[in-house]
Design brief:
This protein is an alpha/beta fold and 290 residues long. Helix content is 36%, strand content 16%. The protein is built from ten helices and twelve strands. α2 packs across α9, α3 crosses α9 and α3 packs antiparallel against α10.
Length: 290
Amino acid sequence: MSLPQRLTLAIGLATALASSAARADEAKFFYEIQPAFENCGDDSLARARKDGITLGVSQIPPEEIIDEKTKEISGLDWDVINGVNAWLGIKTLKTVILPWEAQVPSLLSKRTDIMPIHVNPERTKVLSFTGPAYWYGPVIVVTKGNPLGIKSYDDLKGKTVGSISGSAADSYLQKIKVTSTPFKTEIDEMQSLNQGRLQAVLEDDLVYIEFNKATPNNNLEPLWSIPAPADIINGGGYGMARFAMRKEDCTLRSAYTQALAEMRANGHVSYILKKYGLSDRNLVLYKLNP
């Protein structure tokens, strides 16, 4: 073997070793402190450590992704919850697959123990919420070229608009007197718009991003230039993404809150966001008008 060939082989081997080492290190995160909730009042954290917890899962890519064949769960929220559980010493995470509108009733009836959801005033009457995990906002999606010339949320009045039943977008449309067409899944909603059965959709920005990635030749256009109204963010259901629990499960909620703070601080949440096509921009609340 000639000297140039040996040099090329050595460089290739070094590169491969460096890449392998980087892969081995990329998902390791240092925590400055360990959980300490033993002296709190109720036993919800102790029960979770002993028996595990049950997550209500709805098909909402990329937050929650259900493989239709295997029923295996993945997604942004799945990764965050597993990171929290690892820090807290909760070894078992069970799942129940539900339509979105069944999530809150299932949590209150103790069929499930936790669900990913935004805060709004109505929800705080029956649920308690962890500290923030990350943020995403709403976007109006239309067919390419914006044939109806939609320039504001008010322009949705009188249009055939899709939204997910029971979602923050659905509640906001009702608030501004827009009659919407309800859907159970985001895929059906976005495909209905793509096929011309709707004139617009009000949806989470990351749902559109995921659909656009999975369906690259679609006929849809997000109206990024329209800013998210203040009242859809402040109390309107698009605050920070959090996890909801029953009000009485105080120690579990407090433990989750601290775990999320530690994961945001040490880069773990940032790592998960980037894995699903988001960025550090989604660590804080912002108005969605780039």
